[in-house]
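User: For my dataset I need records formatted as: sequence, then structure tokens, nothing else. Please produce one.
Assistant:
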Amino acid sequence: MRYVVFDVETPNRYNDRMSAIGITVIEDGAVTDSFFSLVDPETHFDHFNTKLTGISAESVIGAPAFPKLWEQIEPIMSSGILVAHNAVFDMSVLKKCLLNYGIVWKSTAKYLCTVQAGRRLLPDIEHKLDAMCGYYGISLDHHKADSDSRACAEILLRYMESGADINSFIRTYRLT
């Protein structure tokens, strides 16, 4: 199985554009690849989001807008099961970016949420990303897309190492 673990940061409260994306690929129980890019969201930044992520309008000058970035990441995103921590958020941002730019990808995507899996596998602990990283001793620079995607990948690997049937947590997300 190939898992494409991703995390997005957004520029404002509308959560319909990306300001950064981090991708970590897992194959055969190990991290095999990673990718990170700032993204020019072609919209305004809310102060809250800039304070949270450290990404501002100035930070994304010269960064690709989503359509150009998508040309680069689509082969990766199409190559496995998508995974995210609180996946409904990241999947919805991806869907909105695709729709807003009129990019046709596919109607559905298989995905796995490490929060939902964690709630079943470890019901007695908190499942926020920083709490899970603390539980497993995983390094995290929170709200940085590359660090968040890597941490989520490490959490998924811990689930796998524990013998959990993680494929039972795969769901389908409608993208159209």
